[in-house]
Amino acid sequence: MKALNKLTAPKAVAPERIIQFGEGNFLRAFVDWIIKNMNDKTDFNSSVVVVQGTPDAFVMQLLQGQDCLYHVNLQGRLEGEVINSFTRVDVISRGLSPFTQTDAFLALADQPEMRFVISNTTEAGITFDPACKLADRPASSYPGKLTQLLYRRYKTFNGAADKGFIIMPCELIFENGHHLKECITQYIDLWKEELGSDYEGFRAWFLTHNYVCSTLVDRIVPGFPRKEIADIQEKLGYKDNIVVQGEAFHLWVIERASNMTLDQLRAEFPAEKAGLHVLITDSEAPYHERKVTLLNGPHTVLSPVAFLSGVNIVRDACNHPVIGKYIHKVQFEELMETLNLPMDELKKFASDVLERFNNPYVDHQVTSIMLNSFPKFQTRDLPGLKTYLERKGELPKGLVLGLAALITYYKGGKREDGTEIVPNDDKKIMDLLTELWATGDTRKVAEGVLGAKDLIWGVQGDLNEVPGLTDLVTYYLDEIQKKGMLETVKEVVEA
Fold first, then answer.
1. Does domain 285-493 have CATH number 1.10.3210.10?
2. CATH T-level topology, domain 2-281
3. Per residue in 129-154, pLDDT tens?
4. Backbone torsion region of residue 418, taken as left when φ is above 0, otherwise alpha when ψ lies between -120 and 50, otherwise beta
5. Does 138 sit behind a cis peptide bond, omega within 30 degrees of 0 on the bond before it?
6. For a 10 Å CB count at each end of the chain, is N or C smaller?
7. What angle separates helix 297-308 from helix 343-357, to the nearest 10 degrees?
């Protein structure tokens, strides 16, 4: 078996136009895979310099040991077809550590062709740390490092209008670009004295000639296929030590920066031309809402319903004659009715979600989804429940059953087949449910959970005030106790 490097495998050479903060599995299986496709299918012709995210990132060493070549293994269903493909990604030109190679890191700003900055530094990465200084080598926070880089570029090119960056963070927080832009502006203001006479000019150049875009990213990336790696290497014919696995589905929604047009962004970043599932749009907000509602929302309610019906794997739940109908009902008849995007788009996305749930390569345990379920229901399902009631004049029975199943799951005990039921949430929530179930009165259980506004529901308030909700939750709690979960689900899907 051959080692994987540029002597044993072809490697494209392209101008370094992208600085990428982070070398983790997600960026390599998503962003770098997308750039590979753009290079192959359009005239994008760009390579990526990877900036190490943490001082001890071992992946960087492995990358450099393979001349930054690696394979992406995509698995799952796409348009009804089972996919198990391999792509050799060759877009990373080099990697460097800002911690040990600070000068080389800052020198990236001097390269005239550099145009894009992409990052995934985890949700905690986009933070403002007032302890950071301009003179630090480097600043400890990611936005601090980026501000240092921007200042170096401003100085090198004397504030040239065409030398700003298009910045596209991929951190999993809503409006990530807005947060990042705010952090950078805070650093510029914090460093006013250090910047001296450059302060006004640098601030204006950043705000006018740099373009910070919010993005939404969507691809499940399990990462390194530890169990199958020997078979995969055999199949590839290369000893690739950083193969990364991801699902076949991908979506990247990029919201144009406020100081550029859609056409400008599309011209500079032609991902749509490459036939990729990349949407360049005026606002990521409706797509964020769509993902939370139609992907995360069904996940949250199908899990207790499936588990208490004796089904352990998400894929098996989708293919179950009763639970499958339940998932379809919640998604297509209830949650979809609460969104404001074109119905064709929503149906396509919901169908894609079901394909993803039905991935033959991933045994996704429903119990793994049920960690901290009440906060998840509060953000993912409750807004839809309320909107449905407003629009239709009645409660969505599938979602309310999901809430009753959740409350029942938190009772603990054993399933009909003897499997232990082990809920996991904030201790105060757990204690409240234990106390309520100890009364033996389902009405008290329903009222107690729905009334826990400070503990669970926050700004959503006391849910006992939602017309008919207390009665319907109580009814389903009784039905589940009497008939079992599966029979209660049948009642809802066959109604």
1. no
2. Rossmann fold (3.40.50)
3. 999 999 999 999 999 999 999 999 99
4. left
5. yes
6. C
7. 40
Which residue reads 């207390």 in tokens? 470
Nearest to 11 by CA among 56, 57, 63, 61: 63
CA 326, CA 131: separation in Å to the nearest integer? 52
Cα 358 from Cα 93, distance rounded (Å): 36
Pairing mode, if any, of strands 244-247 and 238-239?
Answer: unpaired
d(CA 300, CA 400): 12
Residues 6+ apart with CB under 8 A from 205: 154, 159, 164
- Evaluate if pTM is beyond 0.85: yes
Contact 105, 51 (CB under 8 A): yes
Mean pLDDT of the 389-401 span: 97
How far, rounded to the nearest angstrom, does the alpha carbon of residue 109 sit from its chain's CA centroid?
29
Interval 81-94 mean pLDDT: 96
Q: Where are the domains of the chain?
A: 2-281, 285-493
Average pLDDT over residues 10-29: 95
- 285-493 has the same fold as 2-281: no
pLDDT of residue 165: 98
